[in-house]
Amino acid sequence: MIRRTLSASLLAALFLATPAFAEDATIGRPIEGATLHEGHLDMVVYYVPVDGDLLEVTATFAPKTGGDPLRVAMGLSDGDSVAFSMPGHRDSLYAFSRSGEEVTVSSGTDVHPRADALMN
Q1: Long-range contact list for 70-76, CB < 8 A, 24+ apart?
Q2: The CATH classification of domain 19-119, taken from the options 3.30.420, 1.20.1420, 2.30.30, 2.60.98
Q3: Residue 99 has pLDDT above 50, yes or no
Q4: Rounded to 5 degrees, what angle do the CA atoms 75, 50, 38 make?
């Protein structure tokens, strides 16, 4: 009984400590675009190859309530991944990862109980 309770508690803690990604898209060719609409921002993303093996990924975020768009550009090498929130929108988490010529982009809600404390 104790073992079952501990297992259930550990599973619940792991579930709460990881981001819940509700939407994702994979881009497999340069200039091929993708859109994500999770949360308070709509996002359009694409990549272009640059210097050697680097892919430059550009994502533009547009607030659904209006306002100026936000843009992020990053270089990803094969195997790279990054996750972040946009200024003023810490409740949404965006993850970008590269595998070969594919870039996968995910958006969702950051449900980590300490995430807000870490960002302050």
Answers
A1: 70/41, 75/50, 76/47, 76/103
A2: 2.60.98
A3: yes
A4: 45
